[in-house]
Amino acid sequence: MTISIVLLEKCAVEAALKAGAILKEGFGSTFEIKSKIGINNLVTEYDFKAENAIIETIKSYFPEHKFMAEETGDTGEVDSEYQWVIDPLDGTVNFAHAIPIFSVSIAVRKGKDVLCGVIYHPLLDELFVAKHEGGAFLNGKQIRISESDNMQTSLLVTGFPYNVNENPHNCVDTFVSVVQSGIPIRRLGSAALDLAYVAAGRFDGFWESSLFPWDMAAGYLLVKEAGGKITQYDGTEFWLDSPTILATNGLIHEQILKQINSKK
User: Fold this and answer.
1) Which of 91, 128, 187, 253 fits as disulfide partner to 248, beta carbons 3.0 to 4.6 Å?
2) pTM to 2 decimals?
3) Best CA proximity match to 118, nearest among 88, 145, 96
4) Comparing C-alpha atoms, which of 38, 35, 32, 72 is closest to residue 55?
5) What is the Cα–Cα distance from 46 to 35, expressed in whole angstroms?
6) Angle 81-246-40 (CA atoms, 0-180°, nearest 5)?
7) Distance between CA 207 and CA 167 in Å, rounded?
8) Which domains does the chain have, with CATH numbers?
9) How far apart are CA 108 and CA 85, in angstroms?
10) Where are the alpha helices (DSSP H) in the chain?
11) Is the distance from CB of 178 to CB of 185 less than 8 angstroms?
């Protein structure tokens, strides 16, 4: 059965707003923090509360769908064509330290098509929405990638995996290569927001390795629908299980590819 993207969007937005309200209520309060596998890979009770709210909301619309969620893993009807990819709290370390940079990320895909993606920053009340072949929006206004065509005058953003000490995919060398080129770089601590900000033209490019599908699914669609370009570090086609991601406005894509590969 084919479901309209309008209905998928309605469901995703409702779920994101509910999760955002939970996170906003918990932000800055006293709560339990636990460690997952890896250094500083944290989880809080609010990760679970937000994720439960998202899944219950989606189930109220689509009880037959399946889920890939950061905290509860793969659940739901395994034979469903539709899968919801969920990060209830992207930026848990920030949240746990009362740093106001985190987001809710929800996407739904059918096969290789991400049909709808929503990223919500609850403290700023910024709602990013992308629809397959339907554009990218911030609080209802269409957004586009930046027009910077010179890497040297661009503003980039990146992140590091929890096992950065092991230098997976040469992430430390890649970072040093870009830093030594003199390009200004930011590090927010939420890959979903990084991608949303590329889509909105706030950043000109983003790169990172060792991310999970729930970190990238909604942001991937936002960048695509805003006119951007996404590949792996070697320039090949990107998909949600790819080990590396480079997302840019397209104009500086080849320049950044060359730079991040210069230390190999």
Assistant:
1) 253
2) 0.94
3) 88
4) 72
5) 14
6) 85
7) 15
8) 5-142 (3.30.540.10), 151-260 (3.40.190.80)
9) 6
10) 5-26, 45-61, 92-96, 171-180, 191-199, 213-225, 253-260
11) yes
Smallest CA-to-CA distance from 175 within 106, 244, 84 is with: 244
For residue range 89-146, list pLDDT tens digits in order: 999 999 999 999 999 999 999 999 999 999 999 999 999 999 999 999 999 999 999 9
The Cβ of residue 167 has, within 10 Å, a number of other Cβ atoms equal to 14
Alpha carbons 47 and 234: distance in angstroms, whole number: 34
**Encoding tokens for residue 129?**
């929405």
CA distance 88 to 72: 11
| One-letter-per-residue 3-state SS of 136-170 | EEECCEECCCCCCCCHHHCCEEECCCCCHHHCHHH
CB within 8 Å of 240: residues ≥ 6 apart: 85, 109, 114, 213, 216, 217, 220
* Contact of 109 with 82, CB cutoff 8 Å: yes
Cα(228)–Cα(196) distance, integer angstroms: 11
At residue 84, φ and ψ (nearest 5 deg) are -95, 130
Place of tokens 């909301």: 57
Q: Looking at this protein, which amino acid is placed at residue 12?
A: A
Helix (H) or strand (E) holding 117: strand 113-121
CA atoms within 13 A on the CB side of 15: 34
Distance of alpha carbon 239 from its chain centroid, rounded?
A: 13
What confidence tens digit (pLDDT) does each residue in 33-84 have?
666 655 556 778 999 999 999 999 999 999 999 999 988 888 988 889 999 9
- What burial class does residue 110 get, using C-beta atoms within 10 Å of its C-beta: 0-12 exposed, 13-18 middle, 19+ buried? middle
